[in-house]
């Protein structure tokens, strides 16, 4: 009887351990999805992060000496004829005040417009000036129907972190991007991008509550006023949570192994 009970416990422990290993491998694969992105020749980035909403990812290189931020944003439009957008907000953590890059397909090629999002009104069919010099604007199509948006922004000296937003839309009519949906994922599409100092390089999500983008409608784009530099203030450490999450699967496996060895 004792032998049969011990064998049963062994089989159960083995099945539990196998299930844990499957979950750990799935979590590890999801966490590192951005690293599998293959860019065209001549485009490479030092850091990437899988963003916490809309299945998007951001790749970036920050040159502190030149205050230059080069990015590649990848996301799938809400429909095949839709658009994707990424931007930074020097004045808040929501959509209003963001300096945005937006890409959509026009015929056989992609168009990239810049918008200063000053209010909740329809966008214009043409770019509006933004607060940061933007160069190298381009877009192409990646695997799985994702659109990849490229650009380099000249940031103020001393900027160590910046709020960023991203979004996807379902339609473009006569060159005008239609407003995006306002589901929870859309409202959660924002975060803090740490460029230098404590916590860099990490991309940590900002709190979703209180986002002014919860208002309905699209956003109005106008000429911006230049933001003031951060003055070299240290940003709060970011990325501690992601470090904890990365190590948790390993701890689970070790604990499972200890339990299994104790049983057998």
Automatic annotation (TrEMBL):
This is DOMON domain-containing protein. Residues 1-29 form the signal peptide. One of its GO terms (cellular component) is membrane. The keyword Membrane applies. InterPro entries: AIR12_DOMON, DOMON_domain. Residues 204-225 have a biased composition (Low complexity). It comes from the Eukaryota. It comes from Triticum aestivum. The keyword DNA damage does not apply. It is found in: Membrane. Keywords: Membrane, Signal, Transmembrane, Transmembrane helix, Transport. Residues 204-242 are annotated as: Disordered. Residues 54-169 form the DOMON domain. The chain crosses the membrane at residues 246-263.
């Amino acid at each position: 009887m004792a032998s049969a009970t011990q064998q049963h416990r062994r089989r159960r422990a083995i099945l539990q351990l196998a299930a844990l290993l499957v979950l750990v491998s799935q979590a590890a694969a999801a966490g590192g999805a951005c690293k599998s992105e293959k860019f065209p020749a001549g485009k490479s980035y030092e850091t990437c992060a899988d963003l916490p909403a809309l299945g998007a990812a951001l790749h970036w290189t920050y040159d502190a000496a030149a205050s230059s931020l080069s990015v590649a944003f990848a996301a799938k439009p809400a429909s095949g004829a839709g658009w994707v957008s990424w931007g930074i907000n020097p004045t808040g953590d929501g959509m209003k005040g963001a300096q945005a890059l937006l890409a959509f397909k026009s015929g056989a090629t992609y168009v990239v417009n810049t918008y200063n999002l000053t209010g909740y009104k329809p966008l214009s069919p043409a770019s509006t000036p933004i607060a940061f010099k933007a160069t190298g604007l381009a877009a192409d199509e990646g695997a799985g129907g994702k659109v990849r948006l490229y650009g380099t922004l000249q940031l103020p000296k001393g900027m160590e972190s910046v709020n960023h937003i991203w979004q996807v839309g379902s339609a473009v009519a006569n060159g005008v991007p239609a407003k995006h949906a306002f589901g929870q994922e859309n409202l959660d599409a924002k975060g803090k991008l740490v460029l230098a100092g404590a916590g860099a390089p990490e991309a940590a999500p900002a709190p979703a509550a209180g986002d002014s983008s919860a208002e309905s409608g699209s956003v109005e784009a106008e000429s911006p006023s230049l933001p003031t530099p951060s003055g070299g203030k240290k940003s709060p450490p970011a990325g501690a949570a992601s470090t904890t999450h990365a190590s948790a699967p390993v701890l689970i496996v070790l604990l499972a192994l200890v339990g299994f060895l104790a049983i057998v």
